TrEMBL record:
It comes from the Bacteria. Keywords: Oxidoreductase. Pfam families: adh_short_C2. InterPro entries: NAD(P)-bd_dom_sf, SDR_fam. This is Enoyl-ACP reductase. Belongs to the short-chain dehydrogenases/reductases (SDR) family.
Amino acid sequence: MADFKGKTLFISGGTRGIGKAIVYKFAEAGANVAFTYASSADTANEMVADIESRFGVKSRAYKLNILEPETYKDVFKEFDQDFDSLNFFISNAIISGRAVVGGFGPFMRLKPKGLNNIWTATVDAFVVGTQEAAKRIEQAGGGSIISMSSTGNLIYTPNYAGHGANKAAVEAMVRYAAAELGDKNIRVNAVSGGPIDTDALRAFPNYDEVRAETERRSPLNRMGFPEDLSGACKFLCSDEAGWITGHTLIIDGGTTFQ
């Protein structure tokens, strides 16, 4: 099992779903964990207290509006006051609700504003977050950066054109980042999940349809869970993945080859 004692992870969107599972996975392995939240400071602070109590590591939470990626710079200044170094960065936060109106729906109903918001939260946020993280990871002697993605850019998923197109774009950006950051001993990869059973997915109006179709397509006959992706992220940040960069690791229960 990877031992991350003395290492530090920074992840965006760490208070629920996939992000929360990743935070706990790394803390369990001994890593200090910093994460962002969108609105609920109480939830974030409860997590910080729980993590520090259970795992004996350092944890901090920072508020971030992912639709304003440039504010990552201010967040990382706060991070620098709390932590001496950074080893891993995971770009995970997503948007939902009113911000994606016009971006989530059938192709003929897509609108530029919703699509642009998804681009900002997916691609721009990855770029700015990675730029800030890479400066600090380089100072630490190298490490790993991951963007979360989804198989909605590989196979047709109803109402997902806006998200799927942007996930394809961020995977391309990952490859470019990997090519340019390798000489700094920084590996950059993406983790692409099939439909994962989270609160965000349950908010989709066609959740029941997505769940049934995922279970039908998967040879394993089930939906994915956040823990299915957290283990993949832990692997990609470990020494065992030391020669993996510019790659998209698909974790989909076999749903994309059916």
